[in-house]
Amino acid sequence: MAKEKKAKANTLANEHGASMDKIVSLCKRRGFVYPSSEIYGGLSATWDYGPLGVELKKNIQEAWWKEMVRRHDNIVGLDAAIMMHPRTWEASGHVDNFSDPLVDCKDCKTRFRADHLEEIWKDKGITDGSCPECGGTLTEPRQFNLMFTTHMGPVADSGSLIYLRPETAQGIFVNFKNVVDTSRVQIPFGIAQVGKAFRNEITTKNFIFRTCEFEQMEMQYFVKPGTEDESFDEWKAKRMAWYIDRLGIKSDRLRFAEHGPQELAHYAKVAFDIEYEYPFGWQELEGIHSRTDYDLGRHGEFCGKEITYLDPADNTRYVPFVIETSSGLTRSVLVTLMDAYHEETIGEDKNGNPDVRTVLHLHPDIAPVTVAVLPLVKKDGLAEIASDLEKELREDFATFYDQGGAIGRRYRRMDEIGTPFCVTVDYETKDENTVTLRFRDSMEQVRVPAAELSDRIRREMRDYRRS
Ligand code: GAP
């Protein structure tokens, strides 16, 4: 029954036809995302990003970096190591608090999240509290820490134990003093970082939504105590606007959800999630947290030297408060794909059946390919002209050259991966040096002098950003 429910959830589509099954299939078919180590049967909850997926992920990351670091003169970047001194995680509270309650079956040894059991029992009609897999006896709940451990050096003993970071944020906190001492930042200021994080998630499902290895885009904004609420509201608004304006996500599929007292992380005073309406329901995309002086205070305590800031504005010394914006990069890949996916009926095929095109209406700034160059036919020198044009455009845009198959089918292949512009080289190109520029969303085609093509595409992209 649980399996049936899961299968049904995966086929639930939004109003544009995007279901989890369709997204997974498109990702595999077109080279966005593959199961990790697939030739060995895959490894649960880990995924590899293929040629198009890596471009989409990189473009989202660049859009975020541009927004957070380049557009703010008081935010700087950092790239801290994944492996950190183990005391970091004692100070941060992760060793003691970053855990889920788990129970084990004494007979079949299957593990369950204790807080998910009620739902599983309800689904399966189990009323005696037994193991949902074999009917055996379950243990009492035990806390299970989500951090992956490994050992550094040749001896695997407790002295060499280290953790894979479960969030990028701590790399920022432990470098607070380094950044203050070596750059000219003054409070309020932010430190931004993008990188891998690891969590030993027991319940992994929904494709790349929740995985054991994932990427985060985090920014810690350091403020004077007493000004944190104002700053929190400002960042809440800015982060929501980023998804809508820069990633092109539909605003009616985004909302804020405030954490209740039970959900608040051990470090947070107030927290809101930006949620997206996935086919399986509203779920988190980004967390915005008011972290008080918890982290800097704790690191000061654990390293034996207070971490404070001398404010040149009024000569006061204090432990700064922190507003954190924590976005999932890999989760943003899923959201941009789900949100952009559209099945559109655009007439009838030659047998009178509905002609449906699948199109990703991705924001042009994040599309894996910006411009595809297609010769109408390979012969009569058109392929050579098109190939030269593509090489020229490469300097300014992410391009793709495709000379195989009927032109209509080539357009559809580009629609399916979200390419906003297709350029067709035909016989008129030879005679008049003009090309056809085709727009993905409207499927409109216009004739453009080849010499003006780059400028025209740039202008179209600018207009898209403003629209
Ligand atoms: N530093 C705060 C922090 O890590 P979080 O709410 O646990 O907060 C922030 O995580 C974001 O990281 C989430 O909103 C989500 O986008 C992403 N994330 C967290 N766990 C994830 C997982 N197991 N798989 C994919 N993304 C995850």
Query: Which parts are unreliable, with pLDDT below 50 for 5 consecutive residues or more?
Result: none
Strands of the widest sheet, in order across it, are: 3-9-10-16-13-12-11
Structural class determined from secondary elements:
alpha+beta
Which shape, going by the Cα principal axes? globular
Our Rg estimate from Cα atoms comes to 26 Å
> How far from one another are the termini?
46 Å
Roughly how much helix do the residues carry, as a percent range? 25-40%
Bound molecule kinds, no repeats: glycyl-adenosine-5'-phosphate
Largest sheet: 7 strands, mixed
Classify the beta-strand content into a percent band: 25-35%
What's the total count of β strands?
23
Mean pLDDT: 94
Tally of helical runs: 15
Structure report:
- This protein has a seven-stranded mixed sheet with strand order 3-9-10-16-13-12-11. A five-stranded mixed sheet has the order 20-19-21-22-23, sandwiched between helices.
- α3 packs across α11.
- The protein starts with a helix and ends with a helix.
- The longest helix is centred in the first third of the chain and has 20 residues.
- The chain has 15 helices and 23 strands.
- β4 and β5 form a beta hairpin.
- With about 475 residues, the protein is an alpha+beta fold.
- The model has no long low-confidence stretch (mean pLDDT about 95).
- Bound molecules: glycyl-adenosine-5'-phosphate.
- Glycyl-adenosine-5'-phosphate (GAP) binds next to β10, β13, β16 and α11.
